[in-house]
Structure formats: C-alpha cells, structure tokens
Design brief:
Layout: E1 8-11, H1 13-17, E2 26-29, E3 45-48, E4 57-59, E5 65-68, H2 73-83, H3 87-94, H4 100-103, H5 108-114, H6 120-127, E6 131-136, E7 150-155, H7 156-159, E8 160-162, E9 165-166, E10 173-179, H8 181-184, E11 187-193, E12 203-209, E13 215-220, E14 227-231, H9 234-239, H10 242-253, H11 271-290
Parallel strand pairs: 1-3, 2-3
Antiparallel strand pairs: 4-5, 5-10, 6-7, 6-10, 8-9, 11-12, 12-13, 13-14
Helix pairs in contact: 2-3, 3-6, 10-11
Length: about 290
C-alpha cells in the first residue's frame, strides 16, 4: 500500500451521524483489499466502517439472512459451514481464488461495490435475489446515538450496473444485504469457467429453482453486470423450449444495449469465448434444474 494523498484514518461513525461533515476525498474503508491494491489519487480520508461493530451474519425468524457489508468472506463461509447454508455460498467464495489471508480481510460489501464482472459475491447475491440496504451519510446510526439513517433498498442485480460501476450515489454506502429465505431453500445449479485452473472467472452461471416453481438463471463474469432471466414455473420454461429456449433467450438478451447486456472483454477471456462458455453453461444448469 502506498496512498500518498491519504492524510487521515478515522472511525466512520461521526460522519454517518452527521456529527462531522463529509469532505471531498472521503473513502469508506472495510477490508481494503482492493482499496490498498491500486493507486487512489482522489482519496484523502479513510472512514473505517469496521469500527461500527456490525454483526457479520444474522438470520431472521423468517429464515432470511442478513449479511453485513463488513462481513468477511471467511466469516460468511464459516457461518455457512456451521448453519447449513447452501453449498453455493462456498463455491462462490472459492471463486475468489484468494489465499486465506485475503479471505480473512476481504468483505462482502467491498466485493459488491468494487463491481468487477467476476466479483464472486455479486455472482452469489445476485443469483439469490439478495437486496442491498444503502445508507446515506448524515442519516444516523454511526455511533448509535444518531437518528434513524436515511436508507433505500436495491436488488444486488441492479446495484451493479457495469464493470467497476454501481448505482450508488456519491458518499452512499452498503450497510447490509438481505437474502430471502425462499432463495436459501431453493435448488441451485452452478457452472464456472476460467482460462486457467487458477484464473479469474470468465463466465459464472447459477440456475435457481424455487419451491414456488420459479426458475431463475443468472449470468455473471461473462457479462459486464449481472444478467437475469426468469420463468414463473418449470412448465413455462419447458414451453419456452427448455434448455434450448433458455440458451436462445440469454443470447438474444445480450444485445449490447447496456453493460449487463454486453459480453465482457479483457485479458481473462475474449467476448466470443465468454459467450460460448456462458451459453453452454446456461444449457447445463437448466437441464440440471429440469431434471
């Protein structure tokens, strides 16, 4: 780490409560694994969110899961192991391809707002229809003595809008993400492709079949932002052509009209190859769900 412009590291609470004014160059700090890995010429003050003491993972009485933005990947996977969460959690966590030291520091919220196409927490939480709770500075609940925070809610699949871009307004932060109980209980199918065995995800497709019969296919890594297609029931999916119809629907949806409808292009995979892999994976996950 060598952030020449940073002059202060402070707890985030006072700014959240409006007791201290936000300033140009403020940056929210959680794990910092990305923040400290690249030059940040605009950063002047780091506001430490870990000082707020948010509980990493909480399960509501209705079964919904609340994951704090400051929850580390290690904390999430340990909770998954001890509470019987879907194996999908571990499979997406392993897509980090990071050592245990990084997984012990990197956070769920940080991975979301970094908004890489291959961000594994974006893949996981978009596929499970998680909803992010967003806080606006000055709204409260930083030190616990302020008023109710100003907040809004946005599905993770809509929060990430492109490669390194999100729907956050300046200064806004992710407080937590909520995963519905129905998504946690759903059947899932997972496929992932990389150029090399230890490479960054070039295509990651998750299929989900809810108890209600809704079928959801979520494509990430291959596209610049999460792409989701839904069918209300297995019969409607079968009537739409089953696996072949799902492949055609995904291919037609990626029409270049916006980032989530654009095949990604970087050193980890050519767009044509990503398209081929993603469509093959869509076919496989739909076949698995319908079986």
């Amino acid at each position: 780490m060598d952030l020449h412009g940073v002059t202060a590291l402070e707890p985030a609470g006072a700014v959240l409560d409006g007791l201290a004014p936000p300033a140009d160059g403020d940056v929210w700090l959680a794990g910092g694994t990305w923040l400290f890995s690249e030059p940040q010429p605009g950063a002047r003050r780091l506001l430490d969110l870990t000082s707020l003491g948010w509980e990493p993972v909480v399960q509501d009485d209705d079964g919904a899961l609340r994951i704090a933005a400051t929850c580390t990947i290690e904390q999430l996977t340990r909770w998954q192991s001890s509470h019987g969460l879907p194996a999908l959690v571990r499979r997406c966590a392993d897509a980090f391809l990071a050592g245990w030291k990084v997984q012990g520091v990197a956070t769920v919220g940080g991975n979301l707002v970094t908004a890489l196409p291959a961000a594994p927490m974006v893949s996981l939480l978009a596929a499970l229809d998680a909803v992010a709770e967003l806080w606006i500075p000055g709204g409260g609940r930083g030190t616990g003595t302020g008023p109710e925070p100003l907040r809004r809610h946005l599905p993770v699949a809509e929060l990430v809008t492109g490669d390194h871009t999100t729907a956050l307004v300046p200064g806004e932060l992710v407080r937590e993400v909520v995963v519905p109980a129905a998504s946690l209980a759903a059947r899932t199918a997972f496929r992932r492709a990389t150029l090399t065995p230890l490479g960054r995800s070039a295509s990651l497709v998750v299929g989900r079949l809810d108890a209600s019969g809704q079928s959801v296919v979520t494509v990430t890594a291959a596209t610049q932002a999460p792409l989701q297609l839904r069918w209300p029931s297995p019969s409607s999916l079968a009537e739409a052509g089953g696996a072949d119809g799902a492949v055609q629907a995904v291919d037609a949806a990626v029409d270049g009209s916006e980032p989530r409808r654009t095949w990604h292009d970087d050193v980890h995979g050519h767009p044509a190859w990503r398209r081929a892999m993603a469509l093959a994976q869509v076919r496989e996950v739909v076949q698995e769900l319908l079986a």
